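Design request, tokens follow.
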């Protein structure tokens, strides 16, 4: 199995987890979709637990890069928060998927302790970034009515994750847009 097949497996597995949940596929499903034998999957990912570890590791790296790009592209906190909302909106793929952390959280019982800890680490990373962004908003005035940066970060992440679930349930991006409207309105 070459690197391209490994990447294709991870891409397919991630999409499937984000659309149907971690319990919503088997290695047989992946093998059939990619056109390989199950044994070939087991070569790189001996278990689904190892596959889920690889997925969350890649996701964390990608999300960290996305946050870094937002910081580089936008000077104000308001613009950064709007870009974060857009990043989460884009992850919905027209209401067909949710972010990987939300998807994994809905099937926590099926995950290894390593993956559960990694999901927590990803959320902590995002919370730290949002907190820093609200702190910037207090300094630059580009976000109105900030009551406390850490509390705002907790509420914002919960709102984004909840908006994901609601939009996925309805398969409608308008649901996400409605849920995030008030925060967007607070950002200049």
């Amino acid at each position: 199995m070459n690197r391209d097949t490994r990447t294709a497996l991870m891409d397919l597995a991630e999409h499937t987890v984000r659309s149907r949940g971690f319990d919503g596929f088997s290695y047989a499903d992946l093998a059939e979709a990619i056109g390989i034998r199950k044994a070939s999957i087991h070569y790189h990912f001996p278990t689904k637990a190892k596959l889920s570890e690889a997925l969350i590791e890649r996701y964390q790296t990608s999300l960290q890069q996305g946050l870094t790009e937002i910081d580089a592209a936008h000077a104000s906190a308001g613009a950064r928060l709007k870009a974060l909302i857009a990043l989460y909106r884009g992850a919905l793929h027209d209401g067909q998927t949710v972010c990987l952390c939300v998807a994994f959280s809905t099937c926590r019982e099926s995950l290894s302790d390593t993956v559960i800890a990694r999901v927590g680490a990803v959320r902590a990373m995002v919370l730290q970034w949002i907190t820093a962004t609200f702190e910037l908003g207090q300094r630059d005035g580009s976000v109105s009515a900030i009551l406390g940066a850490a509390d705002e970060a907790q509420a914002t992440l919960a709102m984004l994750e909840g908006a994901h679930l609601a939009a996925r349930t309805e398969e409608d991006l308008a649901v996400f847009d409605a849920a995030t409207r008030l925060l967007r309105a607070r950002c200049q």
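Comment from the thread starter after seeing the answer: thanks! Residues 47-184 form a domain with the Tetracycline Repressor; domain 2 fold (CATH 1.10.357.10).
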